[in-house]
Amino acid sequence: MSRRVLGWICVLLWFGLGLGLGTGRAQSSRRDLVRIKGRLHADLGLWGARNGLRGRWNPTSGELRFSNRWINLLFKADTARVELDGVLVWLEFPIAVERGRPYVSQRDLDMTLMPLLKPAKSTPGRKIRRVALSAGHGGKDPGNMEGGRQEKHYTLKLAKELAARLRAAGFEVILVRDEDEYIELDDRPAKANRLKADLYLSLHFNGAGGRGSTTANGLETFSLTLPGGRSTGGGNSTGVQPGNRFDKENLMLAYQVHRSLVQALDFADRGIKRANFAELRDARMPAILIEGGFMDHSEDLKRIMSDRERAKMADAIVDGVRAFKRLAERN
């Protein structure tokens, strides 16, 4: 085969003669894989084409867009950002460019992109019924503060509002704390484990740590850092944890809830991230931690304090949980 013919074949593959989303693993032949900084990377253009996605790569801006009838993806070279249907998801490693072509780490394909694009089917008979809600902080631990306003009071308000809506939607609810009391971090998932919760949601409000109003604002949703992996904000995994058994489900739960929040509320989207939080490490069920805005951002704080806005937040979380339930229970 001549080099010219081979070149045309590559061009056709790039522009979308794909085979459709087939398996939960990245569909790359060995010829597509290269090592960059010691990590295995796959050619994003060929991966997209083989998965039925039409791609547009702009070497000048560093943007690579993929789409088909169902999804839209936007990658940005030299960053770990990817937007899936307009929702920000953080990869472990930045998109690399080699010889003018974008590459993504194989680990990000296997553990972030494909689990979201093609969730694994559930175990037959599995049901999502019981949800544990952990209102952040409490008692001697006020959490983030802005003036006399303490995070612990608003996380408990949100937990109770969310509990009422989940029950109305047919779920059983476990409130890890239902009053202003201090509960050790390790004891929080332990209670959910003991009562056999099917999902675990930790509720928080953020803070930038400065004095007065900050420019940092918006929503973040966290799933557990992968074993041996890097957290989005820095730091590494401490090894395999009980919560890592549910890595792909943790991510899907985070995506469904975060997407619902971003679509329903007037908050900035700070993305779906990974962190090595104690509550997530020890949960023996799919678990996420939600940061519902910044206490020290003036506009975010208004929404956090508003009964109406917190009710909208609770409704959005319920919608996300229900979306995850549909995916988790399908055969």
Keywords for this structure?
alpha+beta, single chain, 2 domains, 5-stranded antiparallel β-sheet, Copper Amine Oxidase, Chain A, domain 1, 331 residues, Aminopeptidase, disordered N terminus, 6-stranded mixed β-sheet, 9 helices
Apparent shape: globular
Radius of gyration: 21 Å
Just give the CATH class of the largest domain: Alpha Beta
Average per-residue pLDDT, rounded, comes to 90
Helical content (DSSP H or I, runs of 4+): 25-40%
Main sheet makeup: 6 strands, mixed
Number of helices: 9
How far is the first residue's CA from the last residue's CA?
Answer: 44 Å
CATH architecture of the largest domain: 3-Layer(aba) Sandwich
List the helices and strands and how they pair.
Blueprint: H1 3-14, E1 33-36, E2 39-43, H2 44-50, E3 54-58, E4 63-67, E5 72-76, E6 81-84, E7 87-90, E8 96-98, E9 101-105, H3 106-117, E10 130-135, E11 145-146, E12 149-150, H4 151-168, E13 172-175, H5 187-194, E14 199-206, E15 219-224, H6 247-264, E16 269-275, H7 278-281, E17 287-294, H8 298-305, H9 307-329
Parallel strand pairs: 10-13, 10-14, 14-17, 15-16
Antiparallel strand pairs: 1-2, 2-9, 3-4, 4-5, 5-6, 6-7, 8-9, 11-12, 15-17
Helix pairs in contact: 3-6, 4-9, 6-9
